[in-house]
Amino acid sequence: MRLAARMAATLIATVLGFALPARADAPFPELPAPAAGAEPWALSSEGRFAGQSWAAIERETLKLAKLRVGSFEGAPTGPAWRERPVRIHYRAYEALAETRGAVIVVPGFTEGATMYQEVVHDLVRNGHSVYIHDHRGQGFSTRLLEGAGDADKGHVDRFDHLVRDLGYFVTLVRAWRGESRAPIHLLAHSMGGAVVSLYLARAGRETPVASAALVTPMHEHTVRPPAQTGVADRAITSWCEELSFRLPFELPWVSARRVQGEGFDAERAAFFAQADLADNDMSHSVERLRRRWADRDARCEGPHCGHGDARVSGPTLRWVGQACAAAREARSPDATARIAVPLLLLQGGQDSIVQAQAQQQFCARVNTGAAAPGRCTGWRLPAARHALLVERDDLRNPALAAVLSFYAAQAGAGR
């Protein structure tokens, strides 16, 4: 706790006065050592919820918050002549003793609300109300592919629909909160970081959001390990970086083809078959990864379920193309120039899922071209992998403390 408190004081002073140099090749500085004097944050240890289900963690949170479960209709999916409705599932945790405003959590690829219960709990414990929706095609929201064997594919119809869904959810949250003047913040991970970046660019000064924290955001994802330099690897990387574009329609038998993995059950079995479960690209915390797999297998019942389970794995070709184009747009000068809120960007030094240089380019462009008070502060945790919010305690908790301190600093700045 003292570690988080010392770090918070340094971070508050830093985010109010530090601007990242406007160079895309400038690496982020390491997250600063903790400093004394700041308010401590109450954060969960790795063992606190060991072996517990997502529903059990949610019940603990509901000792501190009131739950609202619902859904809304997203943009329909499918061609115009046979559109299908899309039900977007959400869960709201309205703190009984809210002191620090609201946080809207925006998950990453294949993730849903069930996988964020420890994060939700910690945010509520520290005075925030929390709102989270499942992206279309994952979590408890409607799947976009029909047919046996397709429901667990990681698929998106149009990335713009993810951005539009978030915009509508932000509007809902703002309406629920009525006349409250407490700030609304965003917390996004990985693919959610690209969604948030595009939402902020399109909303500009009209957004009701006060700030956003982007944790290992997908401003460019890695399509091959850096050591692989074969012709095929270079070709797919070039396609992702330069040639991918957003078709207004899907190609039968091609768009829905899975380009990685063999399905949820096979991917889970492969993980648990490893001799060393710590040998993975996501996190050093085996305990949190075990729980993450259980959370991904969660079931949903009731009128607000767009789908009956949260099982998703392996991207389709359509997802890859849409994600490549969206990430490129999110870090473009045109998009970054329209961002009008302060940003915190946390980077994992051992992240092999997304590209560090693209995150640095994004931050640099925000700081040179964004509308005031838009600015981006980037920090790096050298030992962290991609899933920073489910990392071991010495990585996760300083990162989450940095996020909480950042939100507190923005509230103190009076936006």
Quick gist of this model?
The protein has helices at residues 2-17, 54-61, 117-125, 159-176, 191-203, 231-243, 264-272, 286-296, 317-330, 333-336, 356-369, 393-413, and strands at residues 65-77, 84-95, 102-106, 129-133, 153-154, 184-189, 211-215, 313-315, 342-348, 375-381. With 415 residues, the protein is α/β, with parallel strands linked by helices.
Can you walk through the features of this model?
With 415 residues, the protein is α/β, with parallel strands linked by helices. It has 12 helices and 10 strands. Strands 1-2-4-3-6-7-9-10 form an 8-stranded mixed beta sheet, sandwiched between helices. α11 links the parallel β9 (342-348) and β10 (375-381). The longest helix is centred in the last third of the chain and has 21 residues, at 393-413. The chain is globular and about 55 Å long. The model is unreliable at 1-22 and 225-236 (pLDDT under 50).
Instruction: Report the principal-axis shape.
Output: globular
Query: Could you tell me how far the N terminus lies from the C terminus, measured between alpha carbons in angstroms?
Result: 28 Å
**Poorly predicted runs of 5 or more residues:** 1-22, 225-236
Number of strands: 10
Determine the structural class based on helices, strands and strand pairing.
alpha/beta
The main sheet comes to: 8 strands, mixed
Average pLDDT for all residues = 87
Give the strand order of the largest sheet, numbering strands 1, 2, ... along the chain.
1-2-4-3-6-7-9-10
H/E order of the elements? HHEEEHEEHEHEHHHEHHEHEH
Strand content: 15-25%
Number of helices: 12
Give the proportion of residues in helices. 25-40%
- Over all CA atoms, what is the radius of gyration? 20 Å
